Amino acid sequence: MIFRNGLVLTMDDSHTVLENADVLIVDDKIAEIGPNLTAPDGHEEIDASGGILMPGMVDTHRHLWQTAMRGYGADWTLTQYFVWYYLESGKHFRPEDIYAGNLLGALEAIDSGVTTTVDWSHGLQSVDHADAAVDALEAVPGRFVLAYGNIQQGPWEWATSAEFQDFYRRRVDGGKLAGFQLAFDVTGDPAFPEKAAFEVARELGVPVTTHAGVWGATNDDGIRLMHDSGFMSPGHVYVHAATLSSDSYHRIAATGGSVSVSTESEQSAGQGYPPTWQLRRHGIPVSLSMDTSVWWSGDLFSAMRSTLSADRAREHLEAHGKQETVTHHHLRAGQVVDWATRGGAKALGLDSAIGALTPGRQADVVLIKNDASPVMFPLLNPYGHVVFQAARGDVHTVVIGGRTVKRDGKLVDADLAAARGKVTATIDHLRATLGEDAWKQGMNPDIPEARILHNPYQYTK
Ligand SMILES: [Zn+2]
User: Fold this and answer.
1) Where does the Amidohydrolase-related domain lie (predicted)?
2) In angstroms, what is the span from residue 210 Cα to ligand 1's centroid?
3) How far apart are CA 186 and CA 223, in angstroms?
4) Residues 6+ away with beta carbon under 8 Å from 382
5) What spacing in Å lies between the alpha carbon of 137 and ligand 1's midpoint?
6) How far, in Å, is the centroid of ligand 1 from the Cα of 211?
7) How many CB atoms lie within 10 A of CB 171?
8) CA 297 / ligand 1 centre spacing (Å)
9) DSSP H/E element including 21
10) What is the pLDDT of residues 304-316, one digit of tens each?
11) How far apart are CA 145 and CA 289, in angstroms?
12) What pTM does this model have?
């Protein structure tokens, strides 16, 4: 197939941008990029004029199973999230509920141009749950990395179990997943019980992904334990990393780790200030993620926009504190698009195959085009357009490994009615299990008393 006359953000090493260029796809790979390409007979042609072609986006941390509860936690803090999922209600999710959330979340990802997603799957309280998670991922034609976790047990328990080892052999080794990680957090307990899980990761040769630097949950102690024990290996992904000291950032940078930044999450839940302004100073590679649809949007346009804004907001705030003015922004739109594509591919060790539009790489291509939208012209600064102007509704066509999964703004062969039916069954089950009062309370946490300051200018009354 061939895309004709698009504005191409290749995201190659020099961030080459091509105007009026074609992208030729043969089988599952990008064959050629340039003007007026000759396409083989019988090819499919897609008019990309007026649109932007870019590599498929990569989300390095999303709890897909929570998509079944979309929007429920919009007014939560991180504390309320922990109480609801970790302590009270997470255990009520059955394997079919994991399947329902994963199916919906996976469809949502490919619909919004996220062609590779890490399913940070910490609801796997049994291997049946894990099988259901993988079944759903295999039912959707995207690339998915399973990050296996279980918040109902210590990682030293589940990761060392015979059932887990058996699952790994059955579903991961030689399976269809794009990758596999172990997903668990290091609490900073000086006894370092998580060591056993790191040893399993090392034995399997798979990376660890860990929520590190989360206010009130994980901190420098965890980083120090991992580092001192020799478990901070290249390829490990540190999620949020929002409340860490410079010393911890140095340890991450020196050991070849990267950080997955979930700006919408960090801003609203309270893990800490979105850390890109610190990561840049420490030379730490960045990828972007959406964390969970239980609060936020599941598309990386929001991630790019909020990340660029948060970074700049911090720069201004720091400067104003010193009575200074920022005259030039350090972080540019192009860098944030890089983080959403190449950055994610690099974090997953997949950058030789995906993350950029260059001949020989896998054909994971997103066309942003919407002729009915007054926002799609003029197209002057394409990176700025992707970050600040475009939205998921403008994702016109998505190709993954040469296969068209979305065309003319509509998912191809996706059974949304089936997904809706499964999610509805999950909601019915949880609502009945929790009871109507608990269900409503969970969604509507108490509002702290608001105190209006005394206003000295109001004399009348
Ligand atoms: Zn998370």
Assistant:
1) 52-405
2) 9
3) 8
4) 7, 9, 17, 52
5) 18
6) 7
7) 22
8) 14
9) strand 17-26
10) 999 999 999 999 9
11) 13
12) 0.97
Q: Where are the beta strands (DSSP E) in 27-166?
A: 29-34, 45-47, 52-55, 57-62, 114-121, 143-148
- Distance, CA 30 to ligand 1 centroid (Å)? 33
Report yes or no: 61 and 209 within 8 Å, Cβ to Cβ.
yes
CA of 305 to the centre of ligand 1 (A): 19
Q: Distance, CA 169 to ligand 1 centroid (Å)?
A: 26
Q: How far is the CA of 31 from the centre of ligand 1 (A)?
A: 37
> Counting beta carbons within 10 angstroms of the beta carbon of residue 250, is it exposed (0 to 12), middle (13 to 18) or buried (19 or more)?
middle
- Give 198-219 pLDDT, tens digit per residue: 999 999 999 999 999 999 999 9
- Residue 460 pLDDT level (bands cut at 50, 70, 90): low
pLDDT of residue 461: 56
Residue-wise pLDDT tens digits, 20-53: 999 999 999 999 999 999 998 999 999 999 999 9
Mean pLDDT value of segment 139-154:
97
Reduced to 3 states (helix: H, G, I; strand: E, B; else coil), residue 179 is strand
Q: Tell me the CA end-to-end span of the chain in Å, nearest whole number.
A: 74
Give CA torsion, residues 347, 348, 351, 357, to 10 deg: -90
Question: How far is it, in rounded angstroms, from Cα 452 to Cα 446?
Answer: 18
How do residues 274-333 score in pLDDT, each as one tens digit? 999 999 999 999 999 999 999 999 999 999 999 999 999 999 999 999 999 999 999 999
Q: What is the pLDDT of residues 427-444, one digit of tens each?
A: 999 999 999 999 999 999
Q: What is the pLDDT of residue 455?
A: 85
Determine the residue type at 455: N
